[in-house]
């Protein structure tokens, strides 16, 4: 337990032995900055309570040798490492644990965030502690026609995001972030610094989507950048299920076209319960269609008129901007926001709201009656406290083989679903109410989503989907799970890098 100061003092002595200047990057609980540092990248307030298990200390390396020392000393003194890049882990596992008695430290990579963009070779080296916003900003500073196909929220960290896949508005054209990694720098359990050539193709395969905190500490990724037009088109169109706006029919129809549209279109639909725009004291179900098109407004309107006239897209719904600015658009920033907003690490997606997410994959269109049942579920929670986010698949995603990298959700998926609940109330009782509602929605979705296994997205970590590795392992990785276990067994047989949902080596097989 944490009550004994022993492991921690010996750990500090060990660190100092390796590097006498190291104390300036170690924050113990006695340090006045400990709490603010810990909280600075807790992105889910659900894991920021007095009851949340806290690390023994936070370690903020400034150079790779600091990481090597941390690994050596943690192993010697049996302290578990939780590595944190952007802190967006849905279950808070990069800075906390479900085991109250666990002694662990947080290795926080916030200071390792250098980014070097090389326009001629269309590549970039980016350190794992950089955020997506910092990456997109650095690319935009060099070129308006280069981009990287990763997530849509600026503060997400490159370390965790690419370790678990990483999708965004370019996935139908270019696949996910992990598909576009060409090299990496990793520190392994022996403290060795490895690149693609020295780690070998098995480990290089595993780190591109096989989950963070498992195979080693990723210090940097070499990314293959993609070309985008100088201006892209965005639109948001919302329809309710009332007043002849036909949300139900339009969402139903959307499923038949979305995965077959040109790869230049990405479509997201948010389904939730909102205040009725026409009758202020009532609520209604709303479907918000959010889209990016790699081309001009004219091109998009023509395509939508031909393929998806049901939506009734009009010119005034559309706006053109650079690809980098489209990230701010998706994140809900005002249209005239400066590109520098991408660099703001303090923005929060949910404010003070706690959240829980779950994920699914849809392979057959859900019938109208299925959506009507979803509306009933949404009416069981408050306005905007629960919803579903649908993200279009198809295109490039269907061309990449399932075993290309550990992320397996490829051909056959029309779209991905995220089921989510938000709440601001404190306390276990309120949380249980929302969690039970979300689990009920997930249960309701069973007949409409993938089966055997019921697939889930590793980056939307969900500790509900089974304590046994085989169970969450097949949901996240399908048939790639066995190869991940083999790689883990080869590179970290004693299971030093671990959390509640990391790939186990064969020796610790449960
Ligand atoms: P965090 O630091 O919490 O790390 C997540 C996991 O990876 C932990 O297990 C951690 O220990 C491990 N890890 C972190 N750094 C590592 C490193 N350098 N080496 C090895 N392991 C490391 N996803 C998506 O695909 N598209 C999207 O648009 C979004 N948007 C989004 C918005 C918001 C508000 C949230 C909260 C989350 C998302 N996500 C997402 C999900 C996101 O991709 C997922 O939570 C990532 O794991 C987050 O990576 P971070 O580095 O921020 O998290």
What this model shows, in words?
This protein has 510 residues and is an alpha+beta fold. The chain is built from 15 helices and 18 strands. The protein has helices at residues 6-18, 34-39, 64-76, 132-142, 158-163, 171-174, 196-207, 247-257, 297-307, 323-330, 368-378, 396-399, 428-445, 469-477, 481-491, and strands at 26-28, 57-59, 80-84, 104-108, 115-118, 123-127, 146-147, 181-187, 193-194, 217-224, 226-227, 232-240, 265-275, 283-293, 318-321, 354-362, 386-392, 415-423. Strands 15-12-14-13-17-18-16 form a seven-stranded antiparallel β-sheet. Strand 8 and strand 9 (193-194) form a beta hairpin. Helix 1 runs antiparallel to helix 3. Dihydroflavine-adenine dinucleotide binds next to strand 3, helix 5 and strand 10. Residues 43, 82-90, 93-94, 109, 128, 151-153, 156-157, 159-161, 163-168, 212-213, 217-218, 349, 459, 499 line the site of dihydroflavine-adenine dinucleotide.
Which tags fit this structure?
alpha+beta; binds dihydroflavine-adenine dinucleotide; 510 residues; 18 strands
């Amino acid at each position: 337990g944490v009550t004994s100061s022993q492991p921690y003092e010996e750990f500090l002595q060990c660190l100092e032995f390796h590097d006498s200047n190291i104390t300036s990057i170690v924050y113990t609980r006695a340090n006045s900055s400990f709490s603010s540092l810990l909280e600075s990248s807790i992105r889910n307030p659900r894991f920021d309570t007095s009851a949340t298990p806290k690390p023994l200390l936070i370690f903020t390396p400034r150079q790779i040798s600091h990481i090597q020392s941390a690994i050596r000393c943690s192993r010697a003194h049996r302290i578990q490492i939780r590595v944190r890049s952007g802190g967006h882990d849905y279950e808070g596992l990069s800075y906390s644990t479900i085991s109250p008695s666990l002694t662990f430290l947080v290795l926080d990579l916030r200071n390792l965030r250098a980014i070097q963009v090389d326009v001629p070779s269309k590549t970039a080296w980016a350190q794992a502690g950089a955020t997506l916003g910092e990456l997109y900003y650095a690319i935009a500073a060099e070129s308006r026609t280069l981009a990287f196909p990763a997530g849509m929220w600026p503060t997400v960290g490159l370390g965790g995001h690419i370790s678990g896949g990483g999708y965004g508005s370019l996935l139908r054209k270019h696949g996910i972030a992990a598909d576009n990694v060409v090299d990496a720098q990793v520190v392994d359990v022996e403290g060795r610094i490895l690149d693609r050539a020295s780690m070998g193709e098995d480990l290089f395969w595993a780190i591109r989507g096989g989950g963070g905190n498992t195979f080693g500490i990723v210090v940097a990724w070499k990314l293959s950048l993609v070309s985008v037009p100088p201006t892209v088109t965005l639109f948001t169109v919302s329809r309710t299920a009332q007043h002849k706006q036909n949300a139900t029919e339009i969402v139903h129809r959307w499923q038949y076209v979305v995965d077959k549209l040109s790869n230049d279109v990405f479509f997201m639909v948010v389904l939730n319960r909102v205040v009725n725009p026409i009758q202020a004291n009532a609520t209604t179900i709303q479907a918000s269609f959010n889209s990016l098109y790699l081309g001009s407004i004219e091109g998009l309107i023509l395509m939508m008129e031909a393929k998806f006239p049901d939506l009734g897209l009009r010119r005034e719904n559309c706006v053109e901007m650079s690809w980098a600015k489209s990230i701010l658009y998706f994140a809900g920033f005002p249209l005239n926001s400066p590109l520098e907003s991408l660099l703001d690490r303090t923005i929060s997606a949910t404010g003070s709201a706690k959240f829980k997410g779950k994920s699914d994959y849809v392979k057959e269109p859900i019938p109208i009656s299925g959506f009507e049942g979803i509306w009933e579920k949404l009416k069981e929670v408050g306005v905007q406290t629960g919803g579903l986010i649908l993200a279009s698949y198809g295109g490039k995603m269907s061309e990449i083989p399932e075993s290309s990298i550990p992320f397996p959700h490829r051909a056959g998926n029309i779209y991905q679903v995220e089921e989510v609940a938000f709440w601001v109330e404190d306390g276990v009782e309120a949380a249980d109410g929302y969690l039970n509602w979300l689990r009920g929605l997930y249960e309701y979705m069973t007949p409409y989503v993938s089966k055997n296994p019921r697939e889930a997205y590793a980056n939307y970590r969900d500790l509900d989907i089974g304590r046994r590795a085989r169970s969450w392992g097949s949901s996240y990785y399908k048939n790639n799970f066995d190869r991940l276990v083999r790689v883990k067994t080869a590179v970290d047989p004693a299971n030093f890098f671990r959390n509640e949902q990391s790939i186990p080596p064969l020796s610790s097989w449960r």
